[in-house]
Each structure stands twice: as structure tokens, then as C-alpha cells.
Design a protein that fits this description.
Elements: H1 4-15, E1 25-28, E2 34-35, E3 60-66, E4 77-82, E5 87-91, E6 94-95, E7 98-99, E8 104-106, E9 121-124, H2 137-142, E10 148-157, E11 160-166, E12 177-180, E13 184-186, E14 206-209, E15 223-229, E16 234-239, E17 258-262, E18 266-268, E19 283-287, E20 290-295, E21 298-305, E22 308-315, H3 324-349
Antiparallel strand pairs: 1-3, 1-8, 2-5, 3-4, 4-5, 6-7, 9-10, 9-13, 10-11, 11-12, 14-15, 14-18, 15-16, 16-17, 19-20, 20-21, 21-22
């Protein structure tokens, strides 16, 4: 049975208010006044779900919960959240019902970490310190670009970071306007305009079929020319040989030579090297009064004389190797021979 003094102490304790309230920041003086993760004295279901950790003496914690009443042995019990987002449970100055030295003391909350740093781009949405919006010459210029630069951090004002912002990056302390952190939002870079990629294939491209489409096996590995483009990714290819096809999407291709297929079924045709007995590329030159035309295995020489044209042709045999000088020589001799024959007939006629 409790004596009168014990009853008096119990009544006095029940009248006490908690030493700390939710939102206070406290410093741990004696970490031994702690409870394990299953502390039954606070309503844990009303607290955020955080990993439990043993409190550390000298560290700062935020009070996030207080027991509804004092415990006979421990007094009020506090739920504490660390700056690392862990939770701990502690009592303050009762041990086994007796008053003990404080294990917790009030302390200042941590200073807010600045949201912005020098060089960041920000957009002012209000102006809480210094001159008014209408008297901000730097924003008058900066809003044409849509942002200001954070030039430097200032001393805190109204319990939050403050900044000097300018429309350009400057090291001078005499430029810029002052803003609270709540006056600013981050500048979001606009998305670059999407540039439509040029189509891989276009009308006139030479292509080669690399996969059978719609069961037409005669198209495989065959080469042709893109005739037109249909809806979506479909193209009409007019092949170089009969593939038992059709006239194409718009119906004006060569009958039986056309087939429509998506671009995944063909590729740009590689330029094939001409045969050894062909010239590398067709060309025409004039030399010593004669015109030479080179095309495939043939060299043609044209000589104009007495108002007439005389033609000489030289053609490489399949097993020959094309040579421009040799072709010109033979074609020129044959053209000259015709000139001489014509001259001889004219002389005999006279």
C-alpha cells in the first residue's frame, strides 16, 4: 500500500506536462535512457515507418511523438527522429520512479540545407525581401531569357536560406537582387524541338531485297529501284527483272516487275564494281580533233571531216582488261580508216 508521500509524488507527476512537445529538437545527453524498437509506451501506429536505431549522445533529434501519460517508472516517453531518418525511443529524467538528471535538452533545429547553389538557374515567383518586383532591374532583363543565376548565398532570413540573384554570372557584390528560397523555383530547361529524322529510303534509291515478303521468293536478293512510297512504311520497288509481281502501289510500275514491301525487307544496294573489261564510269572526251566516248566495254571515236562524221568502235573482249589508251588507239584507227576510205573513193570519182 502506498504511503502518503508516494501518493503525493504520483499526483504531482500526473499533473506535470511533458518537457518536450512534437516538433521540438532535443540533444541527447545520456543515451542509456532508451527503449528498444518494440517500445510499448507510445502509439507506434501513429508514427512514420522508420528503421530503429540506438540514440547517440551528443546528437540532435526531432521529437515526433510523446506518450499520452507518464509511466510510473519512466515518466513521459518520447519518439525521436534523427537527421538520418531513423527512430529512437527515450525517457528524460525518471528512473524507477525517481527523478534523475535530464537525458535530453532542448536545442536549435538544424539549419535548412540550401536548395540552390551559385550558378544555378532559378525563376522568381515572389519577392519577400529587399526591393519589390517592380523595382528589380535584373529580373526585368532576366525574364527575357526566363531565369536568373544564383550569384551567391546570403545570411538566412526569416529562418530560410536567402540568395543574391542576377541576370548574368558576376563576382561583383554590387549586382543582383535578394530573394528568399521560398521566392524561387528551379528553372527547367525547355526540351529541344524534335527534329524529324530524314527517311532512310527515298524514291529513286537502288535497293536489294534481303527477306521474302508476302511469299514472293523471286524477290530475294534481287535489285531494283524505289518507285514510290505508300502509307506508313511501305514502298513500291520496281525490280530489274520479272519477279511475277504487279504494277506497284499506284499502278504505274512495269507490269510483273513491282512488289510492295516494308523497309525492313530491303537495304540500299551496294554499288557493284564494273567488270574488268568495262570502263570504271561512262565519260566523253575530246582529243586531237576527235571525240571519244567510253561506255561499258566499248570505246567510240567520232571524227568530223568534210562535213561528215566517221565512227570507229573498239570493244573489249570478255577476258580483256579495259584500258583507256588501248581503246582510244583502236577506235581512232578504225575511224581514221573510214576517213581514208571515204577520201580514196572521192579521189577515184574525180
Amino acid at each position: 500500500m502506498k504511503d502518503g508521500f508516494e501518493l503525493f509524488c504520483e499526483i504531482m507527476r500526473s499533473a506535470e506536462e511533458p518537457a518536450f512537445k512534437v516538433g521540438d529538437w532535443v540533444k541527447v545527453l545520456n543515451e542509456l535512457h532508451n527503449f528498444g524498437k518494440g517500445c510499448p509506451f507510445v502509439e507506434r501506429d501513429k508514427l512514420p515507418t522508420l528503421p530503429w536505431a540506438r540514440p547517440i549522445a551528443g546528437k540532435r533529434y526531432e521529437v515526433i511523438g510523446v506518450s499520452d501519460k507518464q509511466h510510473d517508472r519512466y515518466g513521459y516517453v518520447y519518439a525521436l527522429k534523427s537527421e538520418e531518418n531513423t527512430i529512437s525511443y527515450m525517457h528524460n529524467n525518471y528512473i524507477d520512479g525517481e527523478v534523475a538528471p535530464d537525458a535530453l535538452e532542448l536545442t536549435d533545429p538544424p539549419k535548412p540545407v540550401p536548395k540552390f547553389k551559385a550558378g544555378d538557374k532559378v525563376v522568381p515567383v515572389s519577392k519577400s525581401i529587399g526591393t519589390s518586383f517592380s523595382n528589380c532591374p535584373y529580373w526585368a532583363v532576366g525574364k527575357k531569357k526566363g531565369f536568373l543565376f544564383v550569384e551567391r548565398l546570403l545570411e538566412e532570413a526569416d529562418g530560410q536560406p536567402a540568395y543574391n540573384c542576377c541576370n548574368c554570372l558576376s563576382t561583383s557584390p554590387y549586382v543582383g537582387n535578394h530573394y528568399l528560397e521560398s521566392d524561387l523555383i528551379p528553372y527547367v530547361e525547355p526540351k529541344p524541338k524534335e527534329v524529324k529524322a530524314e527517311p532512310i529510303f527515298k524514291v529513286g534509291d537502288r535497293v536489294r531485297c534481303i527477306e521474302v515478303f508476302m511469299d514472293n521468293k523471286k524477290t530475294l536478293n534481287k535489285t531494283g529501284t524505289i518507285l514510290n512510297k505508300g502509307d506508313g512504311d511501305y514502298y513500291t520497288i520496281e525490280f530489274d527483272e520479272n519477279i511475277d509481281g504487279n504494277r506497284g502501289i499506284q499502278g504505274y510500275g512495269k507490269p510483273d516487275y513491282c512488289w510492295c514491301m516494308p523497309s525492313a525487307y530491303f537495304e540500299i544496294a551496294k554499288k557493284e564494281s564494273p567488270p574488268l573489261n568495262h570502263c570504271p564510269a561512262p565519260k566523253t572526251i575530246t582529243e586531237s580533233g576527235a571525240t571519244f566516248t567510253f561506255n561499258g566495254p566499248a570505246t567510240v571515236c567520232i571524227i568530223e571531216a568534210a562535213g561528215r562524221k566517221f565512227k570507229g568502235i573498239a570493244k573489249c573482249a570478255p577476258d580483256d582488261t579495259w584500258n583507256e589508251t588501248t581503246g582510244k588507239g583502236w577506235a581512232g584507227i578504225r575511224a581514221i580508216r573510214k576517213v581514208l576510205d571515204a577520201t580514196e573513193k572521192e579521189l577515184k570519182r574525180k
